[in-house]
Amino acid sequence: MRDSDFQVNGTLIWYYYICKRQVWLMAHALVPDQEDDNIRQGRDIQEFSYPRDKKELNLGHVKIDLVRREKGQLVIGEIKKSSRFLTSATRQLQYYLWQFEQMGIDVRAELFIPEERQRFEVMLDEETRQELQAVEKEITDIVNQPSPPPLHFYNNYGYYCGSYYPREHLNSGYMILRQAEHYLDNERRMILAKAIVRGACANMQEVLKYYLNRGKDVGTPLQNIESLSESIDDASTIEALMAIEGNIREAYYSAFNTIIDKREFFFEGRTRRPPRDRINALISFGNTMAYTTCLSEIYRTHLDPRISFLHTTNFRRFSLNLDVAEIFKPILVDRIIFYLLSRNMLKASHFESRVAGILLNDKGRQVFLNEWENRLRTTIKHREIGRPVSYRRLVRLELYKIEKHIMGEKQYQPYISRW
User: Fold this and answer.
1) Quick one: pLDDT band at residue 155, thresholds 50, 70, 90?
2) What is the CB neighbour count within 10 angstroms for residue 389?
3) How far from chain centre, in Å, is Cα 169?
């Protein structure tokens, strides 16, 4: 789809906050069955609710459910069947407010949920304007892809179990051979693997420095990481390097209780499958999201997700995403955990005991996922290219750097946050 053929609209904004795959499908006219009972019910609610207000104002990419004048001001409204996707509905209305603002028209906005007898006034602020601007760009990027984003599946415990992913149209024989060469040659593999560990280590240090500067007593873990990192260059095998990386991460995790400082979120050390405490449940769920996000971005490059460098390529379906996620887990997963806990957005009630362990419940996962998507949309000024990029885009730029390295164009240097 050419950019000139496409314009973001409110419906795509709505679906963006629910399912990015659906954004691609809707933009390419692959729509749900319009005679489906749920869709017909939604149409009936819209048609027969609020009969005094004018129904539908269509300005192309802006299609309003309700319009009325109140005390000389234009009031627009959006009708939804339920409050289940309240964030999506709110952003859709805020998008309309933004569009009217750019047209120089002063309007108010209200969200109606007649089946629940609820009405919300929706406002627009500068932070949301910037978010919507970034979302517009990402929607355009999604729509211009030759196939929809991968669809990832998780089991009842929140663990990744598979994906529907597009035909590997970007894979090239040349790139696969170059990846395999770097994997099979121990010297070349170690160069990349060490760079990945250095990047992960540096980002762990940046996280701890941030809290050290804010009065948290994390100096000892920081010193331990610094000491352990000096042995990265001496590692001659992947096994030795992975052992060093494990020790570095253990030293890093030892600072978590000091940073979090909440009795109900005491962290006794890393445990997996199942997690034994609430922090482990958050780390496991967050890491899973990091792995699938990296996998989705790999499909937008020429790299093969089955050939990695730090992790061993074996019968596991994918492993390159595990490599790249190591760099981003401290600055995405861990920072989100600290953020949500420090603001009491996650509480003990968001967890449940299951299968001899502790897991996030549905509400807890939703809280984490909302912040995860917010963080991926957040933009930062990229030092090398000199313009703002989102964290999602940052992951893809990291993959491009790996491509250039294995093609012999430029030595790979991992992304290091300057938080």
Assistant:
1) low
2) 15
3) 24
